[in-house]
Structure formats: C-alpha cells, structure tokens
Fold this protein.
Amino acid sequence: MRDFDFLVIGSGVAGLTFAIKAAQKHPDKKVAIVTKSQASESNTKYAQGGIAVVQNEFSDSFEQHVQDTLRAGDGLCDEEVVRLVVTEGPQRLDELIAWGASFDENNEGTYDLGREGGHTHHRILHHKDITGKEIETKLLTQISLLENIEMLSEHFAIDLITQHHIAGWKGKKEDLQCYGAYVLNKQTEKIETFISKVTMLASGGAGQVYQTTTNPKIATGDGIAMAYRAKARIEGVEFIQFHPTALFDHGESSPSFLISEAVRGFGAHLKNGKGERFMLKYDERAELASRDIVSRAIDNEMKKSGDECVFLDCSHLDMEAFEKHFPNILEKCQSMGLDLTKDMIPVVPAAHYICGGIKTNQQGQTTVGNLYACGECAHTGLHGANRLASNSLLEALVFAHRCFLSASELIESTSIPNGIPEWNEDGTSLPDELILITHNRRELQALMSDYVGIIRSEERLQRALNRLKVINEENEALYKRSKISPQLSELRNLISVAYLIIRKSIERKENVGAFFRL
Ligand code: FAD
Ligand code: SIN
C-alpha cells in the first residue's frame, strides 16, 4: 500500500498542469502521476490546430469567442462555464508560455493566429501543426524539475477506491468518497493500492470505442468507466464529435492521421469524387461551418455517391506558406505519394472527441467526494452538444487551475478511513483468452462505427445494444476468472463507455449539435 496526497491519473495537458501546480504550491506533499503507457503518450501529444484564446481585444473579443462556443454547443452549453473558460484563458496561456511553450509569430512579432470551423475570428495559437507535442514536452520538462512528483509510467489504473471496497459499508450514494485507486504495475504485473487524499481523473477521451478514430490507442475511456463504476454522475456522452477530415487510407490504420481543420481555415476546399466543391450547399460558412455540419455533409456526399471518401483540395494555396504552417501534414501526404500542388487529399470523418464525460462543478469536483475530473474525461458544461475547435486544450488548462485551487483547500480537511483492503487478485491468465479480447475489442469498435456513428436511428441503436450485451457477458465471465491485464481492463472500460453512449443516445429524442438521429 502506498500513500500520496495527490494522485493524478493521466499525463496529458490536464493531469500534468494540475500536478505542476499542486507540487509547486505544496512542496511538502507527495504527488503521484500514474499513466498507462509512456509519459508523453496522450491525445494531447497529437493536437495539431492549437489553442483558442482571445489575444487582441480590438479585432476579436471575449464576447465573440463566447458566442461562437455557444453556437457550436447548440443551446446545451453552461453559459457561466463558457464565460469563465474564455476569460480565464489568457492567464492560463501566459503560465504555459512561462513554462516554456512557444507559439508561432508573424512578421509583425504578434501571434500568427489560425482559424478553424465555427470561429468567427482568427484566434488559434499554434506551434506549426504540432501544438500538442510542444505543450506536452514543455509540461513534462516542468514535471521533471519538481522533486515531490513521482511519475509512474506503465502504471494502469484499474479502479477507484471508495467505501464500496470497505467491508460492511452501508452508506448512501451521496456520501461516497474516493480514497485513491488500484493500479496495475505493468512491469511487475501486480495490482498496487495507491491511497490518496485527493484523486484527479485526467485520463482523456474514448475515441478507441470506434473503428475509425483520430485518437491514439490509449484513448479507451478508462476514467469515465472507472467513475461510472464508482457511481459518479456521467453526462453528455452521446455527443461524439466526428472530425470531418481524417486521412483516408482504406481503414488500414488506427488511429487515423488527422488533417487539421486549420488546413480548411487556411483556405483548402472540400470536394466530392466528381471534383465539385459541395459545402456551400449545406452551410453559408462552407468549409468553416462547425464540425457536426461538415461531417454530416461529407457523410451525405459519400452515401449519395457510394464513394469511400471525399477530398481536400489545397492546390490553389501558397505552398511555401503551407509548408511553414503544416510541415507535419505535408510530410505525411508526401510519404503517401501525394503532391499537394496537384493531388487532392482523400479524407473521411473519424471519431475525434467525446463532448460529455464525468460531470463536474465549476471547481472540477465530481459527484464523488475527493474526486476531481479534468480535461477530455470531464463534463464541465463548456462544450454542450458540440465542442468548438481548439477549445479543449483551453478547457483543460483553465479547469486544471480551478481543480488545483479547490483541491488545495480540500486536502487540509481530508482523512482516510481504516479498513481499505488490498486488491483481491485470484484469477489466472489463460493464453488463448488474450486473442478473444482482441476479437471482442474489434467487434465492439465495428458495431459502434456501424450503428452508433454520425447518423443514428432507434433500430440501429437497439441492434448495437443487443450485440454489446453478448460482448459484455463474455467479457465479464473472462474478467471474473482471469488475471487482470490492461487489455482485459481496457475492453471492460470500452464496453462501459459504449453502453453509456448507446443508452444516452436512445434516451435523447431531439437532434442537437453533434447528435443526429433519423
Ligand atoms: P490526454 O491528453 O488524452 O491524456 C490522458 C492520459 O491518461 C494519457 O496519458 C493516458 O495514457 C492516461 N490514461 C488513460 N487511462 C489510464 C489508466 N487507466 N491508467 C493510467 N493512465 C491512463 N484539442 C484542441 O484544443 N486543439 C487541437 O488542436 C486539438 N487537436 C487534436 C488532434 C488530435 C489528433 C486529437 C486526437 C485530439 C485533438 N484535440 C485538440 C483534443 C485534445 O488534444 C484533447 O482533448 C486533450 O489533449 C485531452 O487532454 P487530457 O489531458 O484530458 O487527456
Ligand atoms: C484540428 O487541428 O483540426 C483539431 C482541433 C481540435 O480538435 O480542436
């Protein structure tokens, strides 16, 4: 059993920002970060477009950023949260810059602001087209300078510890508190008990619940599933944002390589297989309409034509400027033999972001005591029915700070009860079962893509639910008799998240934002 003051699950922008702040403010307290892969592996690392922060109050304004966010969220945002995120953004950005992150500037020495779908202004700060990598690297450098942070990579959080684990507890749901997590050390294959006064879930998204996704393999919704098992409130998970332009490679890679929306902000046009620019038929903002609209338009074009993809045409753009702005994307296209001065980029929509998650208040507190959630796994109310592009890194920074302020107070009054048991591990691993896990994961991803995609229907959702039940029964049986492995635990989490998405989709009757049902 190990004791910490702050236990952070996840090493993306949300978890790292919180950990730096907690460790700096409380040098006498112990901060642990557990992360299931290498420390840098996260959705954060792959962020391309950038971070939306109002820079120039003359040409842009907080109010316009607020209105753009509300419009994308289609009436379901919490307006107070939108206002606080937008207005606190500049301070959080300054901190990030003070920690070493740099953003591209133009010839006048001001920030070279990009534009993406749903934004009425250029307000996206970026570091070429590898903004996330820049942020992740600089945050990890700060972490390495703080002696009271222990970074535990290759450590997989299995479940949160609550009173449910204490023998004889008979309290109410409202009294639930979190006391840390059971964590699988992937090297020793042992499940360790990490006790902590404050636990921060910063475990990121769940894109891997779908076959075609921009999210890396780690994005299996573990935090949402763990919180659900711990009886925390989950909201808004039916709002899955599909990014309109993932590189089409005949479904061969997961994750799919992203062609940033900033490329459309830079002037690229979407065309169908006949070479016709089609977005103006769907929205006056054309390629820069919000993502839900562009993704549905592409879906419609593909269904009408029977084509497997549409195309992004960059041939009319200034290629020298393009290369400066998007070197990573250009290199990827060239590696596929595409010459962007004449070839168009084949693209398809792909699952990209889960707008809902673990419900929090404005301090990032979940409905379970001592448990915070921040970043993509959280549902703060910012995104409503659809996230505005580049608002996610911003949300993580703003809420990591708010969680830190709240947790710094809470920690002084938190105590850990007696009787927390070690993990009860009595299963045995059978080698042939590992392949069953892989098969079931693939089956789950296929059913989610086939039946719970951009356009849903009652019939498709019921089909998905029926098939999911079978996968769930098989997996639960396996879970009960097997030694816990990351693969088994991830599949269990994917099943829970898929179930929540389907159930919430069945419950939601009106079409709003990213949610569309026939
Ligand atoms: P993540 O960065 O995903 O970090 C989650 C961490 O939790 C990882 O370290 C993971 O290994 C760990 N973890 C998960 N489960 C467990 C477990 N069971 N045990 C231990 N550790 C665990 N947003 C923008 O605002 N602007 C952009 O330009 C942008 N571009 C994007 C491009 C791509 C390709 C993708 C995929 C996303 C993009 N997004 C963008 C979204 C944004 O990157 C993410 O929403 C954000 O980075 C999430 O940060 P996070 O800290 O919440 O989670
Ligand atoms: C992109 O660069 O298109 C992704 C931006 C985002 O998801 O916010």
